[in-house]
Please model this.
Amino acid sequence: MSDAASRLAEVGTNIAEAARRAGRKAGDVCLIAVSKTHDADAIRPLIAAGQRHFGENRVQEAAAKWPALRGEAPDVTLHLIGQLQSNKAEEAVALFDAIHSVDRSSLVQALAKACDKLGKRPQLFVQVNIGDEKQKGGCAVADLAALLAEAKAAGLAIDGLMAIPPADVEPAPYFALLDELAERHGLPLRSMGMSGDYEKAVMLGATHVRVGTALFGARD
Model:
């Protein structure tokens, strides 16, 4: 078994165990391999091992490497998990199958326009600034209802919420809050949890976990 296949199997086992402990099915959790800053040669072994969901932070970086990779693996699903500038909305809609970082009015309007123009509807998540951190993107919790209403009025279907809890604190309360917010607004999907805490996120309702280091290995 290759290193990539071994790491993928280990993460899959951990997700399945966390789901079992929470009374959930492992198949209800989508594992997104965070391939940002990794080149095609680093990504191919994971594709060969069966991984099909990948996450990128930047439109430009994804546009440089994924068209060729998707030529080799057309069934890959590509997720934009980083901040998105409104002027890149059309390019993002063309390239990505899911966008996890909808967080403000101007982006809602730009995405609605791009979706109408291209006739394509990626899966959309509103990113919530769950820890109220000034340096982070995301919609404030207090503004979430208004942003969801604006998206609906613009013809955008929001499928779920995404959050990145503050670093170096216990993430469980933040995961629980995101789960509660998604439930309150009738949204089925929760994108939360990364390499250090994805099992906890699964136990608290994550439907999508974004895992980089545990799949690609530690950086040199």
The chain is about 45% helix and 15% strand. The first helix runs from residue 3 to 21. The mean pLDDT is 96. Strands lie at 30-34, 53-56, 77-80, 98-102, 123-127, 160-162, 189-191, 208-211.
